[in-house]
Amino acid sequence: HASLLGSPQDSLTLNLQVRRFREMISSNWKEDYIHKSLFMISIGTEDYLNFTKNNPNADGSAQQAFVSSVTNRLKSDINLLYSLGASKFVVYMLPPLGCLPIVRQEYKTGNDCYEKLNDLAKQYNAKIGPMLNELA
Q: Its Gene Ontology molecular function terms (predicted)?
C-alpha cells in the first residue's frame, strides 16, 4: 500500500519513497538523467479509503481539513522531488472511489456508489490543478 499520510501503518508513504530515491540517486544517478525523467505520481486512494472508514460521520469541515492535509503533503513531497532535480511530473487525479466494487461491497450500497467517498475524491481533484499550477 502507498499513501500520503501513512495510514494504514504498513503503507509506504510518498515521502518515504522520495527519501529512498534521494539515497539511491546520491550514489548511482546523474543529475542530467533525473532532470530529463518524467515522474508519475498516482497516490491518495488509500488515504481517502482509510479516512472514510475511520471517520464515518465526518462533517464537511472535517472532510475539507483532511483534503487540505493530503494535498499539502503531496505538495511538500513534490517540492522535495523538485529539490532533487526532478522537473517533469504527471500527477493523477482520483477516480470516483465510491464506485469501486470493494467500497460498494463494504458500505453495502448495492449497485449505487458511496457518494461520501466520491465527494472526497472530487474535492481532492479540484485542489490538485490549482496546487500544481502554483508549483509550476
A: hydrolase activity, acting on ester bonds
Contact at 8 Å (CB) between 103 and 114? yes
Q: Is the pLDDT of residue 1 over 90?
A: no
By C-alpha distance, which of 99, 128, 117 is closest to 54?
117
C-alpha cell at position 132: 500544481
> Of how many residues is the chain composed?
136
pTM of the model: 0.91
pLDDT at 33: 85
Beta-carbon contacts of 104 under 8 Å, excluding residues fewer than 6 positions away, are 98, 110, 111, 112, 113, 114
pLDDT in tens, 118-128: 999 999 999 99
The ranges assigned to domains in the chain are: 2-134
- Residue 31's SS3 state is helix
Q: Whole-angstrom Cα distance, residue 86 to residue 20?
A: 14
Rounded to whole angstroms, the Cα distance separating 1 from 5 reads 12
